[in-house]
Write a structure and sequence with these properties.
- The complex is a heterotrimer.
- By secondary structure, chain A is α/β, with parallel strands linked by helices.
- Chain A is built from 7 helices and 10 strands.
- Chain A has a 6-stranded mixed β-sheet, sandwiched between helices. In chain A, strands 2-1-4-5 form a 4-stranded antiparallel β-sheet, covered by helices on one side.
- By secondary structure, chain B is mainly alpha-helical.
- Chain C is mainly α.
- Chain C has one domain (5-229).
- The two termini of chain C are 23 Å apart.
- The chains are: A alpha/beta, B mainly alpha, C mainly alpha.
- Chain B binds chain C through residues 99, 151, 154-155, 157-158, 161-162, 165-168, 170-172, 174-175, 178-179, 182-183, 185-187, 189-190, 193-194, 196-198, 200-201, 204, and chain C through 86, 153, 156-157, 160-161, 163-166, 170, 173-174, 176-178, 180-181, 184-185, 188, 197-199, 203-204, 207, 210-211, 214-215, 218, 222, 225-226, 228-230.
Chain lengths: 216, 281, 230
């Protein structure tokens, strides 16, 4: 029985500031896969994840993510994905709860899931009302993960999720990834922690020079 | 000829590296110059026309009964202001077209016509100020037309300033053009509002004579010279616009070539590293 | 996402407005930085114009709105840096908020902050220049229209100039000539209401309304493509 591809890229080229961050990517990811993208700095991993999120336009080539054609309609794709970038993606002066409330209202999600999401990432109650700027790096990452969990995206895009957090944080990330896959979502993540990533991933691709060089 | 092509590319092959063909002129023949037979002919006509106009302006056309010799400035002032407004309307229309259709032709035309339009508006304002000083003793009057022209000048100088600044590094490739097109559209939409409001304002100041009006009955050689100046001015404006457009078009094409080379280099670098890794393991 | 586009845009605008005002309340930029700035300028103009009452009275409308424009430049600059962090800007784009809603929300937030500034300038003028405002209906209507027009231009041009390194100067070059008719209209209307000018104040008010409508309409229409590219 054929499985629907969640991601299909053919010769995808992305240009940022005149530089081809992606120089012709071919990639196919099917539903339910946990795809680990490895590669050196500058290989294009972040650019690939942002392309899959519908944030950057295709300069040439073709791509379909979750059934949405990237060259025509990226905006309908965006609410369907969840992206964990290097930053928190939240407003520094607002508290965790205020941020989550804003993004939940913006995405038209029910507000009663907030506490459950924050419990899942084990963020203590007293921290939830503090402004983001006064949180530690690990707490900020947990807050960002809570935001991701709240969205229940069909495609999870994580850019180096293990970086900059402690052991329990890394275990949390692994749990969330495997939990998401078990619930039917697809996960594509970039990481430098090869053994850890390989342990939870169902598949690995290697990126270099803006292209995917490993198995496709 | 420059073909009107869209700036998006579509490639299906994965074995050959992506590259682009926009129909730009082949660099080996005329990629380094913006002139062609058409512009050379036009240029000659301009020079001849300007010479003839000079003769008529200074020798044949008589001084005006009211304004004296200074009326001769009109032969610069009138065609430049007319063509300045035409260029700015062209910029506005191209900006709107770009927002709707995202064609590179519209983008380059908007930029080129804005630049020529600002140049001509500058000449208009300076010649107007000179005329005012010679005839009425003042460089400037806050009347409707002059003030509107000045505000338009400033708005489109702002447009050019925006064009000169490259967008931030994490913006998409088309963002500079989209921003400029928005500013061009808004500036154009504001022209009637600016004009109307300044007109009301000027009418409140009693006694403000309309600056730079001509005796309505210009006739004979004055009228002929005026028409001649308009004709020659049109030739010059079109010549300037054609060259400026081609500069813009070739610049964009050169960036495409540079981008293709960058893509090649990136892929080659990747292949080299993989080969090294394979050889080393 | 269901729902009529207009109601969605308004709902999204409400969400963005609440967020921007909450952020402003946390940092209190308008109150603690722009407020003192405008008061200082009022004082400086008092010195520069050799503070005698008739001069100040005649100059008040113009001074008021020039000071408000300067303050608006500061507020617009601040508003466009709220989402300067690329992570936050990405999150906003991924949130699924309608672009028209984001634009209108930002316009509303700017307008609220500008209204606070205008009240401060107005009180300052009453106290420092010893003037009285007359013709309240004209003043309120034209001020509202002018504020909306300034906010709409700011919300549209702020992000356009915002990505550039020379942001502040570029913003001024873009915004100020475009707002010249607004400045003209609101000051003339106030002068007429105060009995010092001739003409029809409501005609100026109508012109202000037209300007504001143009800016709002264009901003709402182009915000989508702008957001995709930024």
């Amino acid at each position: 029985m054929p499985v629907d591809p969640v991601v299909e890229l053919r010769g995808a080229v992305c240009v940022t500031g005149g530089f081809p961050t992606l120089a012709g990517v071919d990639l196919a990811v099917t539903a339910g896969e946990v795809c680990f993208v490895s590669g050196d700095n500058g290989a294009g991993k972040t650019s690939l994840l942002r392309l899959l999120a519908g944030l950057t336009p295709l300069a040439s080539g073709a791509g379909t993510v979750l059934g949405v054609d990237l060259s025509t309609d990226r905006r309908t794709l965006r609410p369907m994905v969840g992206l964990l970038g290097h930053g928190t993606g939240m407003y520094d002066e607002l508290s965790v709860l205020e941020n989550l409330r804003f993004f939940a209202s913006a995405s038209r999600l029910p507000l009663d899931g907030l506490d459950a999401a924050l419990d899942l990432v084990a963020l203590p109650a007293r921290v939830r009302v503090l402004p983001m700027v006064s949180l530690s790096a690990g707490q900020r990452r947990r807050a960002a993960l809570a935001g991701l969990v709240l969205r229940r995206p069909r495609l999870w895009l994580l850019d180096e999720p293990h970086t900059g957090i402690d052991g329990s944080g890394r275990l949390l990330v692994d749990r969330l990834i495997t939990g998401a896959a078990a619930a039917g979502a697809t996960v594509v993540f970039a990481s430098h922690e090869t053994e850890r990533a390989a342990a939870i991933a169902t598949r690995q691709v290697e990126m270099a020079g803006g292209t995917v060089s490993g198995p496709q | 000829m420059f073909r009107n092509v869209m700036s998006t590319r579509n490639m299906t092959s994965t074995t050959t590296p992506p590259s682009v063909d926009h129909g730009a002129p082949d660099p080996s023949t005329d990629g380094t110059s913006t002139s062609s037979r058409g512009t050379r002919v036009l240029g000659v006509l301009c020079i001849v026309g300007l010479a003839v106009l000079g003769v008529f302006t200074f020798a044949i056309s008589p001084p005006d009964s009211n304004l004296g010799d200074s009326v001769r400035i009109m032969y610069i002032h009138v065609p430049t202001v007319a063509w300045a407004y035409l260029c700015l309307i062209c910029c506005a229309a191209s900006s709107v077209t770009y927002l709707v259709r995202r064609s590179r032709f519209a983008d380059v035309l908007a930029h080129a016509s804005a630049e020529i339009g600002v140049l001509l508006l500058g000449v208009t304002l300076v010649s107007g100020a000179a005329w005012g000083h010679i005839t009425w003793g003042t460089y400037w009057e806050w009347d409707a037309r002059l003030t509107t022209t000045l505000l338009l000048f400033l708005m489109f100088v702002g447009y050019l300033a925006l064009r000169a600044v490259p967008p931030s590094s994490n913006a998409g490739p088309g963002s500079g053009a989209v921003r400029a097109a928005v500013v061009g559209t808004v500036s154009a939409l504001m022209i009637p509002v600016v004009h109307k409001s300044v007109e009301w304002w000027a009418s409140l100041h009693q006694g403000a004579t309309s600056f730079g009006t001509l005796d309505g009955n210009i006739e004979g050689s004055q009228q002929f010279t005026l028409w001649l100046s308009f004709g020659v001015g049109s030739l010059v404006a079109v010549w300037l616009l054609m060259h400026r457009f081609r500069v813009g078009w070739l610049t964009a094409a050169a960036q495409d070539v540079a981008l293709d080379e960058a893509i090649e280099a990136r892929r080659a670098g990747a292949a080299g590293r993989v080969a090294d890794a394979g050889a080393g393991s | 996402m269901t729902g009529h586009p207009v109601t969605r845009a308004l709902a999204d605008a409400g969400v963005v407005l609440a967020k921007d005002l909450r952020l402003e309340w946390r940092t209190r930029t308008a109150l603690t930085q722009v407020g003192p700035f405008v008061l200082a300028v009022l004082v400086l103009f008092g010195f520069a114009l050799d503070a005698d009452r008739p001069t100040l009275e005649r100059a008040t409308s113009g001074l008021f709105w020039v000071i408000v424009l300067f303050a608006a430049m500061l507020l617009i600059g601040r508003s466009s840096t709220i989402e300067r962090d690329p992570g936050v800007s990405d999150a906003l784009r991924l949130s699924g908020l309608s672009p028209a809603g984001i634009f209108l929300g930002k316009v509303a937030a700017l307008a609220c902050q500008l209204l606070v500034v205008e009240i401060v300038v107005g009180l300052g003028a009453v106290v420092l220049y010893n003037i009285t405002f007359v013709g309240w209906s004209v003043i309120l209507v034209t001020s509202l229209a002018a504020t909306v027009a300034i906010s709409a231009v700011g919300a549209l041009y702020g992000p356009i100039a915002g990505g550039a390194r020379t942001r502040e100067a570029l913003l001024a070059v873009l915004v100020l000539p475009t707002l010249a008719p607004v400045l003209l209209g609101v000051t003339r209307a106030w002068e007429i209401a105060a009995g010092r000018g001739v003409g029809d104040a409501w005609a100026w008010a109508a012109m202000l309304g037209v300007s504001a409508t143009i800016y709002l309409a264009v901003g709402t229409a182009v915000w989508g493509p702008l957001l995709s590219e930024l």
